[in-house]
Specification:
The chain is mainly α. It contains nine helices and no strands.
Length: 200
C-alpha cells in the first residue's frame, strides 16, 4: 500500500472538493465545541479522533465498500452504546471534571445538543457508503479512529488522578470497544478492487 500523503490530499480536493471542504468544516466544528464545553484535554482527544480520521481519509488509498466494514461497524456501534451507558451511570464526566478542572457541562445546553448532533452524523455512514459518497468514508474513518484510538484514554486517565491506579468510568466497555474499532480500521484501510467510484 502506497500512501504518498501530499499527492493523496491533492487528489481528494481535486476529485471530491465539496466533500473535502465539508469534512474539514465538520472536523473543526467538533473540535471547537469540544474545547468550549470540556476544556483542553477532552478537546485534544476530539482532535485526535476527528483530525486523525480526516488525515487517514486523505492519505490512505482505499475504496472499501460498506459491505467490507459492515460487521465491525455495527459491532463497534453497539459497543459504543454500551460504553456511553457505562460512562453515564458511573459518572464519567464528573470524574473527568476532577482531572481537568472544567465544570461538568449542562446536559440540556444548546452546545451539548449541537455536539451530539454533529457526532450523530456517524449514523449516516452506512447510507452514504452504500451510495458511493466519499463523505461516508470520511465518517467511517473518524468513527473507527475515535473508537479505536481515543477511547484508549480511559486507561490513561487513572494516571492523572491522585492515589493508585484504579477503575475509571468507561474503562471496562473500552476493553471490547477498542479492538472492534481496530478491526474496522483494518478493513477500511485494506484496498478494495471492487470499490465504487466515490461521489462528491
Amino acid at each position: 500500500m502506497s500512501f504518498g500523503a501530499p499527492s493523496n490530499v491533492r487528489k481528494r480536493f481535486r476529485t471530491a472538493p465539496k466533500t473535502a471542504v465539508a469534512a474539514c468544516a465538520l472536523t473543526m466544528a467538533i473540535v471547537g465545541l469540544g474545547y468550549v464545553m470540556l476544556g483542553l484535554l477532552p478537546a485534544a482527544l476530539f482532535t485526535f479522533g476527528f483530525l486523525g480520521g480526516l488525515l487517514a481519509w486523505f492519505v490512505v488509498p482505499t475504496a472499501a465498500s460498506f459491505g467490507e466494514i459492515r460487521t465491525p461497524f455495527f459491532l463497534t456501534l453497539g459497543l459504543f452504546v454500551v460504553h456511553k451507558l457505562e460512562e453515564r451511570y458511573l459518572d464519567f464526566f464528573p470524574a473527568l471534571s476532577r482531572i481537568t478542572g472544567v465544570p461538568v457541562p449542562d446536559t440540556n445546553s444548546i452546545l451539548v445538543y449541537l455536539l451530539y448532533g454533529l457526532a450523530s452524523t456517524w449514523l449516516l455512514t452506512p447510507w452514504l457508503m452504500k451510495r458511493g459518497h466519499a463523505f461516508g468514508q470520511y465518517l467511517a474513518w473518524t468513527f473507527f479512529v475515535s473508537m479505536g484510538v481515543v477511547e484508549l484514554a480511559h486507561f490513561a486517565f487513572p494516571l492523572l488522578t491522585p492515589g493508585s491506579y484504579e477503575y475509571f468510568p468507561g474503562m471496562v466497555s473500552a476493553l471490547l470497544l477498542v479492538p472492534a474499532a481496530w478491526w474496522g480500521i483494518r478493513r477500511l484501510a485494506r484496498p478494495s478492487t471492487a470499490g465504487p467510484r466515490l461521489l462528491d
